[in-house]
Amino acid sequence: MDTNRKQQLRQAYKMAPTYYGVIQIENKRNHKIYLDTAANLHNRWAFYQLNLNKDFYRNTPLQADWDAQAGEDFEYTVLWKKETTDVLNMRQTLKDLKAKWYRDLQPFDDRGYNRRPKDWEESND
């Protein structure tokens, strides 16, 4: 690839809109889900695959199932996204999003791979 083409691709990448949002990884065999939020959704599935293949989530049920299934039958979905230009406090926004989606989908125990937050109130169940 010539230098001019590389420059064009870099510029296009820099100009592309960036999205933050909520993602879900579902084990299609047992239907357990893992929820997370991300400040930048670009290449997020590749990020999770790399980390799971490198045993980053060791000693967790998600890692155990990933290893047992050799990464097969897992599906990545972006549940919600929005352009990052609309955010003033990304950290708080992601925290609030995660709490909302935890309440809605409850990805804990038999339903999912997420750990129940320590400050989770019984009224959230």
TrEMBL record:
Gene3D superfamilies linked: GIY-YIG endonuclease (3.40.1440.10)
InterPro entries: GIY-YIG_endonuc_sf (IPR035901)
Name the record gives this protein: GIY-YIG nuclease family protein
Organism of this sequence: Lactiplantibacillus daowaiensis
Top-level taxon: Bacteria
